[in-house]
Amino acid sequence: MKTSQEEVARRAIKHALKALKKRHLVEEGAHAPAYIALSRPIISQSSEWKEKAENLEMELQQCYKAQSRLSEQLVVEVAECRALKASLQEKETAMAEMEMELTQTRDECSQLKVDLEEKVRALELVLSEREELKAQLQQLTIRATNAEAENKKLVDRWMLQKMQDAERLNEANALCEDMIEQLKVSGLEKLAREQVDGIVRRSEEGAEFFSESYVPSVCKNRINAHEGGCASIMFENNSSRLISGGQDRSIKMWDSSTGSLSHSLFGCLGSVLDLAITHDNRSIIAASSSNNLFVWDVNSGRVRHTLTGHTDKVFAVDVSKVSSRHVVSAAYDRTIKVWDLQKGYCTNTIMSHSNCNALCFSTDGLTICSGHVDGNLRLWDIQTGKLLSEVAAHSLAITSLSLSRNGNVVLTSSRDNAHNLFDIRSLEVCGTFRATGSRVASNWSRSCISPDNKYIAAGSADGSIYIWSISKADIVSTLKEHTAPVLCCTWSGVGKPLASADKNGVVCTWT
């Protein structure tokens, strides 16, 4: 396109030059008569020549002026031609760039069309999969409905069976009561006192197993019991056999005299936060961080029940001191639940204003004592769930409750680092125990009263164990063996030994 414009300009210039030459030839032809006249004798035509010369001179000047104008016009036209040529080049460059952009846009459009086709195919595939899933969902819904109906039938049959079992149990209990009355009449009162819910168990007072408690001073066994910490330990009733539960989800039974492991129980789905054992030593109940309670048969080592119903971590559990059948638990869902181990389900739920960290049964099995995060000690009626009384026991959260052997006094420990003794009947403070350096390690640190009701043992965040004399209200011993905060202490029901556990999972026995 540039070549064609240059040719047009050249042709225009050539045409202008030809026009000038033609005009020049015409002017020369016009001047020809003058030249002929000049060839005549000068004397005879002098005046005429003179006049014609002047005219020719004027015409020649006019021709020069016209030629000058034409030259100027030619220069202007050449300059304009050059400017047009530059403008044309710029427009051609812009046109080339626009053509490149158009090509790129077309390529992008083609790619977008390809992507759109792929997306459409993927959408069609997703829609087909959705239809398939919808059909599967409908089938599963039908199966679930059928399963629910079948489950309802099974539950109805199971409830009917349970009702029949309950009727048989009531008949057996009535027969048992008749037998007890007959035994009382026949003078066998001791045997009658030892029968509870048809189970012959050891004497409630445990006089034949009980001996005076001693103040421990020596660590007899140091046991690496659990990984990740040990939050609960206890002894079997009227025995020195130790039971521990830890964050590794296991429950272990130890010979406290040798420190050797005798038995392990598995099946807990979360960390073991508290333990309880029935009075016949046949069942162990564990409170778990999995929101459930687990009940093991000690002889077989198998899980007998999984008690579900709490919606948060279960931090406390206790068994009735009258019957091995009733269990009470507390969780951080602000509920306290009463369970029937024979039936395997909850019989009563008590709502509380504050989360419960610790609880225990009264000796008559009719009252529940609970210690709460708000620092209050509360008493509940187990049958009705009614709050009987409460007292502001501490300024901070209560971490532990320990009932004395005769059931008249309860020990409360708190994050305010105080340990108080309350008369269970009047909820009056009988004594307060503190020590410099004694700091409660966690919201679930467990302290204990000795079986003879003479001493109090409590662990501290510095790894020490402080022992107070209840009568003197003084520290009689400070035990140091743990290198981590002590989480719980417990005394054997036979008077010795004392056991303690810390945050590293180490269990120590003291004599």
Task: Briefly characterize the structure.
With 511 residues, the protein is α+β, with helices and mostly antiparallel strands.
Molecular structure report:
Residues 45-170 form the Autophagy-related protein domain. Keywords: Coiled coil, Repeat, WD repeat. The chain starts with a helix and ends with a strand. The protein is of the alpha+beta class and 511 residues long. α1 packs antiparallel against α2 (46-185). Residues 188-209 have low confidence and may be disordered. It has helices at residues 2-38, 46-185, 189-193; strands spanning 195-196, 199-200, 219-224, 230-235, 241-246, 251-255, 260-265, 272-277, 283-288, 293-297, 302-307, 314-319, 326-331, 335-340, 345-351, 356-361, 367-372, 376-381, 387-392, 398-403, 409-414, 419-423, 429-433, 448-449, 455-459, 464-469, 474-480, 486-491, 498-502, 506-510. The strands form eight sheets. It has a four-stranded antiparallel beta sheet, with no helix packed on it. Strands 4-5-6-7 form a four-stranded antiparallel beta sheet, with no helix packed on it. Strands 8-9-10-11 form a four-stranded antiparallel beta sheet, with no helix packed on it. It folds into two domains: 2-112; 219-510, YVTN repeat-like/Quinoprotein amine dehydrogenase (Methylamine Dehydrogenase, Chain H, 7 Propeller), CATH 2.130.10.10.
